[in-house]
Design brief:
The complex is a heterodimer of chains A (276) and B (254). By secondary structure, chain A is of the alpha/beta class. Chain A contains 6 helices and 11 strands. Chain A has a 9-stranded mixed beta sheet with strand order 2-1-3-4-11-10-9-6-7. Chain A has a two-stranded antiparallel ribbon with strand order 5-8. In chain B, a hairpin with an 8-residue loop joins strand 12 and strand 13. In chain B, strands 3-1-4-5-14-13-12-8-9 form a 9-stranded mixed beta sheet, with helices on one face. The N terminus of chain B is likely disordered. Chain B is of the alpha/beta class and 254 residues long. The N and C termini of chain B lie far apart (48 Å). The chains are: A alpha/beta (276), B alpha/beta (254). The interface between A and B is large, with 71 and 72 residues. Strand 2 of chain A pairs antiparallel with strand 2 of chain B, so a sheet runs across the interface.
Chain lengths: 276, 254
Amino acid sequence: MDRNPAYPAASNGLTKVWVQVTSGGAPFPPSFYEMFAQPMFSADMEIWELDHPYDFHRLFASGGYGTHGKGLSYLFTGDPGKGIPSGPPIPKDMPDDYPWDPSGGRGDPGFDILVLNDQLDWPEEIRTTIQKAVAAKKGIVILHHALGDNQNWPWWYEEVTGGLLVLDNQSGKSKSRISRTAVLDLEPVKKHPILTGVRAFRLEDDSAYLRMWQSPKITPLLETKSSQSDKTVAWIGPCTDTRVVCIQPGGSTQTHRSEDYRKLVRNAILWCAGRL
Amino acid sequence: MKISRRSFLGSAAAAAALPVNLLEAQAPESLRGNRLRVQYTTGGHTVPLSSFVMFTDDTFGDLDTIAFPHPNAFRNLLGQPGEPGPDVLVLYDYLTESFDEQDQQAIRNYLNAGKGLVVLHHALCDNQRWAWWREEVTGGSLIQLGIDGIKRGRLKQFPVQQLSPVGEHPIVRDLQPFLLPRDEIFIDMWLSPKVTPLLESDDADLSNKTLAWVGVHPKARVASMQPGHTPQVCAHPRYMEIVHRMILWTGGRL
């Protein structure tokens, strides 16, 4: 798993796990991203937000120009067409110990893990990229809103995630119910590395999903008895090519600041990366 | 296959007629009180995690902020019964072509209603092919695409610079000059002569030293700031203070 000593080291001496977090199409509290800035995450992960519109190509290694890929650097060095050329490129002022920066011009190994909190029906181009990522064993963690992704792409919810928040009635599936400000008492179902250090805990102000479509092939991790929610609220997806974890809560600041919830998300990422 | 942002937005907007649960991300009305409603819209480029931390209640406690990345982000700018829209829209997205037609109309209506707009860093690269946006709204733009008659901008990474307030505008009144942590600077930006400068940089490569300014829309209050690329800058107290003042001023609270 370790790749390049030039990249930051995790607390266990290995290269940090590179994590792309993507949102888009649905609103959420800023505390969602605040969660990923905590030492619990940053000690072992290099985490970058990459919100839509984005096509997931950063899940694969780049040879050069950070977030932009190689393609954009020409904009600052030559004149591809119209427009008045500006001056020459300005040398970077970046000390050797300056951390990797998405626009810093340094290549990167490609993100190991994709964490999703978007809510979109992805266009065909993105679907092709994510299929390649799954085949390349990139881990995927699905949080809250993202359980509503790809309403009309059965491969995604049947073979990968194992769950779908149904946003409108459709053939064979009734619309799921969303309850805001629900109280959820959550209990671990079994012993699993993802549940290390996660106790039974309560979330007092989250959005709960009821009557989601869930595959019989999922492996439950957390359950609740709340009448406002489906019983299984966190599970391992049925994907056989890579590791996928789905976590239904995640819509409120109270949840994002829950130590148990944070542990759950952190462990899910590390497990998907083969670090647990 | 790599796709353009425009094609993604077009296809996503067409395919993604998903219900948007706006209220889910907002605090209950009883907790919101008289706080300014702020929508923080990102997308198309990385944004430091610390920029989101800035918008939490611990820092901007007098603001009620939701994060709402593209697409669909402009669907409720003017609000509807039971789902109030934002008082201030903060853009930190990176959509270099043009907003799609639906979003263009939505933001026009929003600005004509006299609402607030704050434009940070990457978002100064938005809408490079939409002249109205830079000439009648923001007053400044980093042009990276080939646009007839406009010099193309460059990046300078990652110098330390001193920023100094200009004039007596409420956004910078009584601020002292300060050193900004390492950041990305836009060289050779297009800037309207009609903007009101707020902050100047001492960086020697800048032909125009203005790094923050008040925009030019006749009805909406618009403020823009070029810095904001690195996590260190987004966590810098003085930077956060200026962003906060921009939000308060554009929202009519300063």
